[in-house]
Amino acid sequence: KLIVAPGNAGIAGIATCAPVDPCDAAAVLSLCEEEALELVIIGPEAPLAAGVADRLRDAGLAVFGPSAAAARLEASKAFTKEVCDACGAPTARWARFTDAAAARAHIRAAGAPIVVKADGLAAGKGVVVAETVEAAERAVEEMFAGAHGAAGAEVVVEEVLTGEEASFFVLVDGTDVLPLGTAQDHKRIGEGDTGPNTGGMGAYSPAPVMTPEVEARALEEIVGHRIVRIHDSVLKVMLFQFMRGLAFGLGTVIGASILVSVLVAVLARIEFVPLLGDLAGRVIEQIEEAQGQPPP
């Protein structure tokens, strides 16, 4: 049995949608107790940052998702930059500000192009790649004026890095690392990579730019832990295809922002591995049908 909260029409064909706010830990816990759920998978950063995983673990539930403390790596850009600096991970030069005047002075001294980011979570819309000093100053003013709510109470300004952006997903337990796969999303709203960055523009996986050489460098220079390999190749394929199909393929085929509201997936009363295989097959089959390709 698969329950998704809150869900949407795109996923309703393979899951039961529950009208629950995924950032409300008490409501999610009540749902788990009512349905006698045994495993909770929390994907997006907002409920993770809100401590939903911590609350469910405290109640004795098995949870796939980091703690609120670990989720700060996604919830605060300044915190992530501090971690990168502390561990020597390569990152763009940056500065943080809680005052608009100081941020503007820094921008004028640094020049453009330059990147202005709301520190907190802004649904993929809190980053401005400013081509001019004036545009960067305008972004600072808008962020401190509340354009992104509390997410813009602090601003990160950093140098522009030219190139492709990709995501590299790994599982960690504090000692070991298991790479899951790669993905890229369509960042800018206009054709030819023009216009502002935004969320919900679609994504694809695997990311062609993430070659084995780039992945190896990321593991060595950023992740920095030894790799664990799953010896059961069937389980590994199931897990990767499930994550890739549900998180990226379905969203790309059905609509631009379909997965934005697919927030908490809950598995219950069934063995995990067979369910993963079944879901992966069904998701991939629906994607192929949507693309006009008959299933194998």
SSE order and pairing:
Elements: E1 2-5, E2 16-17, H1 25-35, E3 39-42, H2 45-49, H3 52-58, E4 62-64, H4 68-75, H5 77-87, E5 94-97, H6 100-110, E6 114-118, E7 127-130, H7 133-144, E8 155-159, E9 167-172, E10 176-185, E11 188-190, E12 194-197, E13 203-204, H8 212-223, E14 226-227, H9 233-254, E15 264-267, H10 272-290
Parallel strand pairs: 1-2, 3-4, 10-14
Antiparallel strand pairs: 1-15, 3-15, 5-8, 6-7, 6-8, 9-10, 10-13, 11-12
Helix pairs in contact: 1-3, 4-5, 6-7, 9-10
Description:
By secondary structure, the protein is α+β, with helices and mostly antiparallel strands. It is built from 10 helices and 15 strands. The strands form 4 sheets. The chain has a 5-stranded mixed β-sheet with strand order 2-1-15-3-4. Strands 5-8-6-7 form a 4-stranded antiparallel β-sheet, sandwiched between helices. Strand 6 and strand 7 form a beta hairpin. Helix 9 runs parallel beside helix 10. The longest helix has 22 residues.
Entry summary:
This protein is an alpha+beta fold and 296 residues long. It has helices at residues 25-35, 45-49, 52-58, 68-75, 77-87, 100-110, 133-144, 212-223, 233-254, 272-290; strands spanning 2-5, 16-17, 39-42, 62-64, 94-97, 114-118, 127-130, 155-159, 167-172, 176-185, 188-190, 194-197, 203-204, 226-227, 264-267.
